Every structure is written in structure tokens, then in C-alpha cells.
Amino acid sequence: MLTYFVAFLLSASCSFVLTPLVRNLGIRLGTMDDGSEARKVHDRPIPRVGGVAIAVAFFLPVIGLFFWDNLVSERYLADAPRVAGLVLGAVGMVALGLVDDVHDLRARTKLVVQILFAVAAWFLGYQIVKIASPFGDPIALGWLSFPVTLLWIVGIVNAINLIDGLDGLASGIALFAVIILFMLGVLNRNVIVGLTAIALAGALVGFLRYNFNPASIFMGDSGSLFIGYVLAVTAISGSAKSSTVVSLTIPLLALGLPVMDTTLTVLRRFLAGKNLFAADRDHVHHRLLDRGMSHRQAVLVLYGGCAFLGLGALMLVYANSLLSAVILTVMALGALSFSWGLGYLSWEEMRLSVRYGLFRQQALRDRLDAIEKVVDAVRKARTVEEAIDRVVDLAPGIGVDHVQCRLEVEATKGPRRFEVDGPPGEDKERQEPYRLVRPLVWGLGSIRVSGFLAFEWYCPREQLHLPEAGSYDWITLVLRDRILELMTNDDIDTLGPKLTHQLRS
């Protein structure tokens, strides 16, 4: 235990001293996060290269083992392939993240490099060869070991990256997880897990002093990718020699919150037909903020969730099969309740996502067919009033909740004004509508038309799917042209030969 204690002090002290130096360097080099993106929650530029300080502080006690001959260092260095996989992969992830912090790499480029590091880790001994279960004997993966290991490493790396959205959130969650992994390593007498985990814990403790709200430095991708990789391979080491029946389930629970957030994010984007790599403002921490929580309150609530999951993971170490099943069931129900409370499992939201995501092409064809019916009805209208009414009457068929039309027409027979709202009936006062306004302005000869056509939806903007937005311009143009035809026919005898020639040409 003395070795673990010394490793923790070294990494924590190094991180505490080095972080402000890295912060000042980041300011000088201009590697700042200015908070200009909509999903950001800070309003001032903050350096985002804190991962460098975390990595250096982590490696200090690890490298020190090469110069301190003791039982722990002997066991640690005896497993050279795994040590190489840990060190090379961690350094590579820091480098990849640092390049991204400076130059903003494409998401696909980062994913490819992450997969390459995961492949290298597999060949160097970080392999998930079986998945144990509290309900029976462990399940040997066989050839599935390779893809499952890659999915685990890449998944955890991106889970930490995605959860890094509030001051101190990713670093605090990682600290909870790494403490659980350290305890698991000590209980199983796994030196690699114990030393790796305690070194990372110290680095995170020192960094949190400057990263907790209000943060003066962010870990950036250099930190999130590094921490995610170290956690992923450490968890594999911890489960490989575990005597407990739940094996990888324990580190999975320890990392439960970022894993849940990543799973929900990928599922939500897939169902909505969105780019899986596109950033948005709909993560767990964002939803807590949207419900009125302060920055610190949201972080502390998520810390509490991590503590709950960590406690459950530790209970599994000593639980029998029946108790393990009960614990996992309770935690699964808790996760479902939490997700439901944040609106992730809302039936309406899922219905919209499936309708306009998985069945996006069919929904788009149906919508365009309905819009074409509106256009045909407008073209067949015999009066201006009828043309406007056709748009209003058919609005529900194209998914529009309400239509407003305001027109002022100047012609030789005098001015006319049209004001139409519809469809009538349902009370829509529950919230402000999202409006798509298209101008109706035209002039020719003695005829002048001015006004607008507005389409309204009574649901949050983020729930709208308007891939056919240009079609509403089509409706507006057809309505404008039909009004032109009707007004011209009405005034054709008084417009003169010049206008008649213009219409024919």
C-alpha cells in the first residue's frame, strides 16, 4: 500500500503544480475554447489543453517504477506487453487530442485513429475474452473478442469525451470510476490495475482544483481521450483476473453514467436520422440545466449518480448470483427512471424520432405528396379567397398546426385586404409556436401585392423535422402566382396593351 500512497501523492502534486503552468501556456498559444457554439455553457475564453498536465502527472509515478526496485514494480514490469500497450496508447491519445484541440480534426478522422490504437491494444494483451454473468457460467467470446474489445475501448474513449460538457464533470466522473477500479485491483491483487488507477486518481484530484466550477482550464480532447483510453484498458485488466462472477460488469457500472449518456446520444441521433458525429446540446447535463439547475447543481447531481453506481459495483464484488441479479435489476430500473425523468424515453419524442428518422424517406415522400395536393388546389382556385382558404384547409395534411395569411392588394378597381387564420378549433396557447414566415410581395403595372404567409408548429424547435422546408417556399410562390393570375384576369381590360404584351412574353 505504501507504493500506491506514494504514487498518488506524486501524481496529485505534479498535477496541482503543472496545471496552472499549462493553463498559462495555453493562453499564450491561443488554444482557447471561446464558448461560441450553442452547446457550450461558458461565456468566456478558457484554455483547453489541461489534458497535458493530467497525462504528465499520471506518467510520473509510472515511469518512477523503472527506478524504484520493489515488489510492486517487479510485478508491474513483468507484464511488458500490457505496460507497452498502456503507455503507447495513452501517449498516442494525448497527441491525437492535442492536435484536435489546436486544429479541430474531423470526427471521422479521430474515430479511425482511435480504432487503430484499440487494435494495437488488443494485440498487446488487452482482450475481453469472456463476459461473465450473474445468471450462469461466463460466456466465452471466441472470435467476437476482437470486435467487442474494440467497441469497449473506442466506446469508453468517446463516452468520456461526450460527457465533458460542464466544469469538472468529466474529471469528477472519471475520478469516481477510477477509485472503483483501484479498489477492484487491490481486492484482486492486480498490480497493474491498482497502480494505474491510483496514479490517474491523483492526476485528476490535482486537476479538479482548477477544473471545478468556475473552471480556469478545460481538459480538452487531449484529456478526455487520454482518460477514456486509460480507463478502458484498466477496466479490461481488472476484469481479466477478477474472481467475481460479474467480471466486466463492475467496471461497466463504474463508468455507467458516461456509457449511458453515449448510448442515449447514439440512439437518439440514429432514430432521428442525424449525423452520429454532429455535436448537439441534448446530453444528460444539458437537460439538467434546461430544467433549471445551476451549473454546480447539475454536476453534483451527476456526481451522486456516479456514487450510486459505484456503490452498486462494489456490492457486486461480494454478492452471490441472486443478490447480484437483484442489484443489477434495481440499478437498471434507476437508470430507466432517470432517463424517463429527463425526457429521453418520452413516447412523443420517440414517435417523432422514429417517424422522421428511421422512416425519414417514406415520411418525406408522404409529406411532399401532401404538399403537392395543396399546390394543385391553389392552382385550381377561382378567387383569391379560395386560393388562400385551400392552403389553410389543407395545412393539417402537411403537418402544419396553424397558418396565417395577411395580404394587401392594390388594383385598378381599388384596394383589397385579406386576413385568414386557421385551421380553427384546438387551443394552441400552451406554448409559443415556431414560425416559418414567407413574404408575399409582388408588383406589376397597376397591381401591387404585399403581405406574408406564415406556417406555425406548436412544438419545440428541436422536435421539428423540416427536410422539405423549401417546399413551403413552393407553396408561397404558387399562391403568389395564382393571386397574380386572378387579379390580372379581373383587371385585364384596364391594364392596357403594354401589360398584356408582358404577360404573353
Structure summary:
With 505 residues, this protein is of the alpha+beta class.
How many E-type strands? 9
Based on Cα principal axes, name the global outline: elongated
Radius of gyration: 31 Å
Strand % is: 5-15%
CA distance, first residue to last residue: 93 Å
Q: What string, H for helix and E for strand, traces the elements in order?
A: HEEHHHHEEHHHHHHHHHHHHEEEEEHH
For the biggest sheet, the summary is:
5 strands, antiparallel
Mean pLDDT: 76
- Structural domain tally: 2
- Name the helicity range: 55-70%
What is the tally of helical segments? 19
Stretches where pLDDT is under 50 for at least 5 consecutive residues are: 241-246, 492-505
Alpha-beta content class = alpha+beta
Task: Characterise this structure.
This protein is of the alpha+beta class and 505 residues long. The chain has two domains: 2-356, no CATH class; 360-504, Beta-Lactamase (2-Layer Sandwich). The protein is built from 19 helices and nine strands. The strands form three sheets. Strands 5, 6, 7, 8 and 9 form a five-stranded antiparallel sheet that branches. It has a two-stranded antiparallel sheet with strand order 1-2. A two-stranded antiparallel ribbon has the order 3-4. Strand 8 and strand 9 (447-457) form a beta hairpin. The radius of gyration is 31 Å and the shape is elongated.
Give the tags.
alpha+beta, Beta-Lactamase, 5-stranded antiparallel beta sheet, 19 helices, 9 strands, 63% helix
